[in-house]
Specification:
- The complex is a heterodimer of chains A (429) and B (121).
- Chain A has 429 residues and is mainly alpha-helical.
- Among the domains of chain A are: 91 residues, no CATH class; 95 residues.
- In chain A, 68% of the residues lie in helices and 0% in strands.
- Chain A is built from 19 helices and no strands.
- In chain A, helix 12 packs across helix 13, helix 15 packs antiparallel against helix 16 and helix 16 packs antiparallel against helix 17.
- Chain B is an alpha+beta fold and 121 residues long.
- Chain B has one domain: 2-Layer Sandwich (Alpha-Beta Plaits), CATH 3.30.70.
- Chain B has four helices and six strands.
- In chain B, a hairpin with a 2-residue loop joins strand 3 and strand 4.
- The longest helix of chain B has 20 residues.
- The radius of gyration of chain B is 17 Å and the shape is flat.
- Classes of the chains: A mainly alpha (429), B alpha+beta (121).
- At the A-B interface, helix 5, helix 7 and helix 19 of A face strand 2 of B.
């Protein structure tokens, strides 16, 4: 099999994984065992398809193989239960029975993928478990792949997935879409999980962490899938646009040695034009017809940055207006930080510093290194080199990101020499 | 976020405990490790360290190595072991470590591990 064909088969498996799992859970009602069986079937496909070729009906093939594994598992599970004198009657028998063909209640393959996303990001699960289960049950990644991406031992991911499945089992969460009244709120959690997966991959630098960047691709793939299922939801489209418009800058945001390149200094020729165009089209479409939401606004801000041919062409007044809106509909200290930067770019550093002062008493961010880093940057813009240097150093002490610490230390060191030896400081955020 | 939990104790501190206390400590420590490994928050790869007197400290100055016996720091409490945590926050990490029996007898320091990932600047 050629590399391209292998890649195609992998994409196919990833797309079929949640559909096959949906069929099994509906037919046999045991999410825990069904999920294991699907993993085994995917593994079997990875091992057999390259030699034997992709079957004519790959979905049917996977369902057959997974069902066989599941039946074996359930037989031994039931035997175990009988030994323990706990009757299998605990499980309502109709859950084991496939609905008749043409049954009105029978949901589509699409609904199954969506149902699995809602299930994997159920609010009763810890965020770490939500991420792991989403990647495995919906994304079709193996435990080993997830472990490599999160830089933890495989056994840890296995524990998180198994704990998530126990919670689902114990709380008797049905395998169905959440009822209408809570669906919007639950969709927010699904989107947040996808956003976290994206970020985990996006913030990874090059080199040893390269595998983590696959998380970004996976998050985009899953969000595309959600958008295909919910094309009219503005926030789903907004999130997809935000991911594309952000990921477009990937190649420019780090140097080969893993050091960070601030937006203003990035080589914009390295930006991914295809992603930018796609993201722009998506966000324009969403803003034109859907109710406004935080992902759409963040995507719009990313779009304004991406549209500027040079850093100095950036339409800061528009970014400022978007941050003001974002702060109104979704206030949080991180938004205020970025708002302060935009304000400084439009009305000067003192206006930005004034806005930052509002955050000093805010327990959620007052000791956070990002507040110091932004303050340092605005103080540098204002020409207060000594205070800027102190803030950069304070931020460098507090960050837990190694590339960021190096960046902040370098900024501080640059301010140690008298101003007339250096060109005017450039903006960095 | 990943954290390392550093267990500090006086050399010989374990020996100084009564047999009952030692047994209690060991079984509590096992239960502690099991509970948080199962929650997916305690990562494998931790270790207990041999007595500081069994170690060497290496310094290379102007290309000349100087190797001395014993620990680097003259502190009363020495590093006795460590383990890794991966939790939502530092608050959660300290909440877990509060349950470590070693924290009751000695002290456990929780420190964030630097991440190679960097935010968008």
């Amino acid at each position: 099999m050629t590399t391209q064909a292998a890649r195609g088969a992998e994409d196919l498996l990833r797309q079929l994984a949640p559909q096959v799992l949906g069929v099994l859970v509906r037919r046999y009602g045991n999410f825990d065992l069904a999920e294991e069986a699907v993993q085994e079937a995917l593994l079997a496909a990875v091992l057999q398809w390259p030699d034997q070729g992709v079957p004519d009906n790959p979905r049917g093939w996977l369902i057959t193989v997974a069902s066989r594994r599941l039946a074996d598992e359930m037989r031994s599970e039931q035997a175990r239960r009988r030994r323990e004198e706990r009757a299998a009657a605990q499980v309502p028998s109709d859950e084991f029975v496939a609905p008749p063909p043409g049954d009105e209640r029978r949901p589509s393959r699409e609904d199954d993928t969506l149902t699995l996303l809602f299930l994997s990001s159920h609010p009763s699960l810890s965020p770490a478990s939500q991420l792991a289960l989403t990647l495995r049950a919906v994304g079709g990644l193996t435990t080993a792949e997830i472990a490599r991406a999160f830089l933890v031992p495989e056994s840890t991911i296995a524990q998180r997935i198994s704990r998530a499945k126990q919670s689902i089992k114990a709380s008797g969460i049905p395998f169905s879409l959440p009822p209408e009244p809570e669906r919007a709120a639950r969709l927010q959690v699904v989107l947040h999980v996808l956003y976290l997966i994206f970020n985990e991959g996006y913030t990874a630098s090059t080199g040893p962490d390269l595998q983590r960047s696959e998380l970004t691709a996976e998050a985009i793939r899953l969000t595309r899938e959600v958008r295909r299922l919910l094309p009219d939801d503005g926030e789903v489209t907004g999130l997809l646009a935000l991911m594309l418009l952000t990921d477009a800058r990937r190649a420019a945001r780090t140097r080969a040695d893993g050091s960070l390149v601030p937006l203003a200094e990035q080589d914009r020729k390295l930006w991914n034009r295809g992603y930018i165009e796609e993201g722009l089209a998506l966000i324009t479409d969403a803003l034109g017809r859907a109710p406004l939401g935080p992902y759409q606004l963040q995507a719009a801000i990313a779009a304004v940055h991406d549209e500027a041919a040079r850093a100095e062409d950036t339409d800061w007044p528009q970014i400022l207006a978007l941050y003001a809106l974002l702060e109104r509909i979704s206030p949080n200290p991180m938004v205020t930080l970025n708002h302060a930067v935009a304000l400084a770019m439009v009305r000067g550093p003192h206006a930005g510093l004034e806005l930052l002062r509002r955050l000093d008493g805010n327990g959620r961010i007052s000791g956070h290194h990002r507040l110091d880093a932004v303050r340092a940057h605005l103080l540098e813009m204002a020409g207060d080199r000594a205070a800027a240097r102190e803030s950069y150093r304070s931020a460098a002490r507090r960050t837990t990101s190694l590339p960021e610490r190096r960046y902040l230390e370098a900024r501080a060191a640059r301010l140690a020499t008298p101003a007339n030896c250096r060109s005017t400081a450039r903006r960095s955020t | 976020m990943k954290y390392v939990a550093l267990v500090y104790s006086n050399p010989g501190a374990f020996e100084a405990l009564s047999q009952t206390e030692r047994d209690e400590l060991m079984s509590e420590a096992d239960a502690y490790l099991k509970e948080f490994t199962e929650s997916g928050e305690l990562l494998g790869g931790g270790a207990a360290l041999a007595d500081p007197s069994t170690g060497k400290t290496v310094r290379v100055r102007d290309g000349v190595p100087a190797i001395t016996d014993g620990p680097f720091a003259e502190a009363k409490e020495q590093l006795a072991g460590y383990y890794l945590l991966d939790t939502e926050s530092l608050e959660r990490a300290t909440e877990i470590v509060t349950r470590d029996p070693a924290a009751r007898f000695w002290a456990v320091e929780v420190r964030p591990i630097m991440d190679m990932a960097g935010p968008e600047m």
